[in-house]
TrEMBL record:
UniProt xrefs under NCBIfam families: PRK02813.1
Family: Belongs to the peptidase M18 family.
Biological source species: Magallana gigas (Pacific oyster)
Enzyme Commission number(s): 3.4.11.21
Region: Disordered, residue numbers: 191-210
Quaternary structure note: Tetrahedron-shaped homododecamer built from six homodimers.
InterPro entries associated with the record: Peptidase_M18, Peptidase_M18_dom2
GO-annotated cellular components: cytoplasm
CDD domains: M18_DAP
Catalytic activity, reaction form: Release of an N-terminal aspartate or glutamate from a peptide, with a preference for aspartate
The name this protein goes by in its record: Aspartyl aminopeptidase
Span of the signal peptide: none
Amino acid sequence: MTSTKDGVLVAAKQFLNFVNKSPSPFHVVQEVKALLLSSGFKELSETEPWSIKPLDKCFLTRNHSTIIAFAVGGKFKPGNGFSIIGAHTDSPCLKVKPRSKTDKSGYQMVGVQCYGGGIWHTWFDRDLTLAGRVITKNGDKLEHRLLNVEKPILKIPNICIHLMRDHNEKFSPNKESHLIPVLATAVQAELQDGSPKPSGENNKDALKEEKDKHQPLLVKLICDKLNIQPDQMMDFELCLADTQPAAIGGVLDEFIFSPRLDNLLNAYCATTALAESCNGNGLAADPNIRLICLFDNEEVGSESAQGAASTLQELVLRRLSAGGTSTAFEEAIPKSYMVSADQAHAVHPNYPEKHEDNHKIGLHKGVAVKFNANQRYATTAMTASILREIARREQCPLQEIVVRNDSACGSTIGPIMSAKLGIPTIDVGAPQLSMHSIREMCCTSSVLQTSQLFKAFFEHYPSVFASMQ
């Protein structure tokens, strides 16, 4: 499948719009929902019975941060297989502590926790904001409200080189002491709202109300954005995010400079591929159910009610298998196939020695298939061969990646899901640089190449599976 430069840029710019609207997992799910609803999908609830029929297109969410969507093939019957793409909605970031009010040396600051394995020095000297969800009380109801403060309100300033002469050689910030963003000065805060200065370096009083756990200016900002009173704010989950938008870069407009490429690129491409694969008559002839499963909490191990290690995916697949024989679910599993999609490490031009010599993947060269003999990735010779055949049919380029034997290997939801369900699984990812930095880098080609591969998977997997001996 060939792509023009214009087509590549159009797809990349559409992805940038998605990223810029998705500063937290809650916003990611909201944007995915919008894409699905515009493509004719309807929302289901876990708490209600389902009546699923061929050609139905549906989705459900859990915790507002995980979403599973599916399209039922026209020839599906219980016991048939599932064609699944899995990705995740979260990225390494800083999250506001439950009691974040911190006062130091005349500054009002916001206490944060480190979420995931971020490159934390990249968060210094960035124009930061807050995004996530706030739980509010409206009468007798608790409501989930999205928050995105679209201006820079926080900063983590570096120590100047004059006070740390070996800064360039030994800078290693203490994550508890040095990674605290500044919100305001105490002097200006007092002039602004007339509140008294806090006594001592930290306010250590026994705080009873949610609003008293955080800086008054922060509480006011949140309440003003949501048009609520402070006593209506029950709790929140807020991420720090860079206010600089994602952008096309490079002298040839060939790069994407963006936050959260890991793993919003695959979440977005899986969503668009599912929606586009339902156009035309292809779905009507499909014996399988096509699914995307976008989980939260992958960056911290997936062990949560909304993570890939939960029972969520299994419960959904069991419900979709209902109505057949008593073993319909068990019959479906060996007919199914899962693509675990998470970003991959492109060869770094300044550190080429960090990459295995025969597996240096490059930008613009296609999605990479990930292999690891120690099962950090779930790829097998069989699952790789199936995807190669699918890619061949649509001329989608593929690469292969293996880490060096003397290097640690990250992992994905692939081994988790394949072990829990026994579904044949492959790990893949588009190549990128600066993974887990606040600003990451990939190529514009990756968006279209990944979407095309995923769409080809949905359309061709059943016939490829049927051809296996």
